[in-house]
Every structure is written in structure tokens, then in C-alpha cells.
């Protein structure tokens, strides 16, 4: 779902027009003009927190993933956004952890565990 200039002005009638020009990227905009979520995420104007909460409530996780970590937590809490985490992303394969990779062996010395023989490259 796209955020439009009309949505922002409906929620915040006193929103600064100069800030809106910065968000839209052009001076020629109307109520149906789309506002980029990445520009809203990077917005540092007077109503940045309120605007972020408003957009998070409308777009949810799509928007909150664009925020920096420190700003993300505050917006998620204020907007009551339900975050679900994918446990597969958090898990790491034990073999890929640097402490689990043997540094005293060469790839040519590693035995083939299925056959019990040294591999011939």
C-alpha cells in the first residue's frame, strides 16, 4: 500500500509544505502523489516520529524494516506493530561459525567421511 500526500495531510493538517516537497522530490505534487517509504524512513523534520508511527501503522513491517535499529524499536512500540521473526534467519549453521572451522588442516588433508579415504582433487 502506497502512502500519498493526501494521506499525510489528512493525518497531519499542519505538515510543513517544504518538508513535503523534500519527501515527494518535486514541487509539482497533488493529493494522489506517492511518497517513497525510504524517504519517510530517512526524514528528520519536525514531525518525524509522528509520521513514522503513522506510516508504520499503515504499511507495517514493510516500512519498519527500512528504519535504523534505534528508531525501529521506538516506532514499533508506539505504533503497536506486531513483529514476527523468522527463526531460520537467526539460526546459523554451526560449520559456518569461524570458531568451528579448523585452521590447522589443509583442504587436501581432510578425509572423506563417507568412504574413509583421503580425497583426491
Overview of the structural elements:
The chain is mostly helical. It has a two-stranded antiparallel ribbon. Residues 86-90 have low confidence and may be disordered. Helix 4 crosses helix 6 (69-79). The protein has a domain at 3-82. Helix content is 42%, strand content 7%. It is built from seven helices and four strands. A hairpin with a 4-residue loop joins strand 3 (111-112) and strand 4.
Q: Can you give me a brief rundown of this structure?
A:
The chain is mainly alpha-helical. It has helices at residues 5-11, 17-24, 37-41, 48-59, 61-64, 69-79, 87-90; strands spanning 3-4, 34-35, 111-112, 117-118.
Provide tags for this entry.
single chain; 121 residues; mainly alpha; two-stranded antiparallel ribbon; 7 helices
Low-confidence stretches: 86-90
Please count the beta strands (DSSP E, at least 2 residues each). 4
Largest sheet: 2 strands, antiparallel
Our estimate of the beta-strand percent is 5-15%
User: What general form does the structure show?
Assistant: elongated
In terms of structural class, how would the helical and strand content be classed?
Answer: mainly alpha
Q: Mean pLDDT score, rounded?
A: 72
